[in-house]
Every structure is written in C-alpha cells, then in structure tokens.
Specification:
alpha+beta, four-stranded mixed β-sheet, 11 helices, 54% helix
Length: 245
C-alpha cells in the first residue's frame, strides 16, 4: 500500500481542493498539512514551496516534492491513475486533456482570482478594472459553454482530470463576481449542467466537508471571512484595527 501523500495547503483557496478531488477520485491515501493563509510565506511552508503558494505535495513513495496545482494533477494522474479513470491513453485525447488543464491554470484561475480581488477585496473600487475583469471571466465561461455544446464532458465520454480542474473556481462564481446570486451560471446552461454533474460527485462533496472542518479550525466561515464577520465592511474595519495595533 502507498504511503500517504502530504498535501500542504491553506483551506480557503480553490486550488488545493483540485488536488484533493483528484486524490479522492483515485483513492490515493493523503494527509493534509493545513497552514493559515498569512503563513504561506513563512517556514515551514516555504521550505516545501519557495513560491509560498498553495498547494504543494510531498510524495514519500517517490521522494518527490512538487508545487503548482496543474503540475501536481498531471503527476498524480501519470503516477497513480493506472486504470485510466480520469485520463485517456490515445494520442488526441491525451493532449486535449492537457490543453484544457493549461487553459484552466493560465486562463480560468488567474482571471477569476483577479476578478474576485477587484470586486471584493481591493480597498478602492475601480470601475474600468472591474468591468475588464468581469468581461474576462465571462469570456472564459463562454469558451467553456461553446465547447460543451452537445457534450457532457470536455474530452471524450467521461469525466476526466481536465473537467475536475475547473470545478472549485466555478463553485466560487458568486464571490468572484461579487454578486449574491445563488444561480450565477444561468447565462451558460451547458456549463451549469456540466458543473452540476461534477459537484454531485462524492469526491467533491467529501473535499468540501474537509474544507469546512479545516476552515472552522482556523476560525473561518466557508466564504473565508473570520467568524463573527458578516460582510466586507466589517472585515475591512477589522483589518484596519489590526493594522493599528
């Protein structure tokens, strides 16, 4: 039996949970090293990932330390998906899967992150920047919507690591766009149906249960806010008070 893979993470972010979902799908043993977000740039986390970003893994079975979520997903599938549950062996499909993974890590992730920052966290509201960020997120959604027309999955006949790589950021659409809409994908019916197929999988549901527990351990509620904070105004006031101390 394989030794558990160490997964180093900060629970609030979407990227670590892409890795957890793949590990759950492949039934690979793992243990989570949970670090507060503000400690990502400190030891021991930077001893594992000098870039100070989550996630990172240490695989004792191969003596490999690896960071960047896309690289980790590719490694896990290559090393542990012996039954090809989440991938394909044929040449076209194999490379199409990597194409979509690269689109996720270079397109969806960065654009969604910027959009969430300027819509929610940036102290100054910059309408032109917010408009561009929102436009780019909707452009990414449009690419996925068109590509899923008449299909259930991005590549081939089954859910693969390429599909699963998009799930955690799409599950934050209300926060990314700064809207209270509980139905933020309604403009994109193909994408919404695809997303709903994935969030019904036990791998995702288990990952979110673990996330909620780890967030609670750090005094955070599921949206990343500290317990007792109800909105961004209260959070900003709290941060200013802490900066003054």
């Amino acid at each position: 039996m394989s030794k558990p893979i160490e997964v180093w993470m900060s629970p609030p972010g979407p990227n670590p949970w892409k890795v957890i979902i793949v590990l759950e799908e492949l039934a690979v043993p793992y243990e989570i090293k949970s670090v507060r977000f503000e400690d990502n740039k400190k030891a021991p986390f930077i001893d594992v990932n000098p870039n100070g970003r989550a996630p990172a893994i240490i695989d004792p079975n191969t003596n490999l330390t690896l960071w960047e979520s896309g690289a980790i997903i590719q490694y896990l599938v290559e090393q542990y998906d012996t039954s090809k549950k989440l991938t394909f062996e044929a040449l076209p499909e194999k490379h199409l899967l990597n194409q979509w993974l690269m689109f996720q890590v270079s397109g969806q992730g960065p654009y969604y992150r910027q959009c969430g920052w300027f819509n929610v966290l940036h102290p100054e509201k910059l309408p032109s920047v917010i408009e561009r960020c929102n436009h780019e997120v909707k452009r990414v959604l449009s690419v996925l919507e068109k590509s899923l027309d008449g299909k259930q999955w991005l590549v081939g006949h089954k859910c693969t690591f390429a599909d699963l790589s998009f799930i955690t950021w799409n599950d934050r659409m209300d926060i990314v766009l700064g809207v209270p809409d509980s139905h933020p994908l309604k403009e994109f019916p193909n994408m919404e149906a695809w997303h709903n197929r994935m969030i019904s999988r036990e791998s995702f549901r288990k990952a979110m249960r673990i996330r909620e527990k780890l967030m609670d351990d750090q005094g955070l509620i599921p949206n990343g806010m500290p317990k007792g904070i109800n909105n961004m105004e209260e959070y900003e006031a709290k941060m200013k008070r802490e900066e003054g101390n």
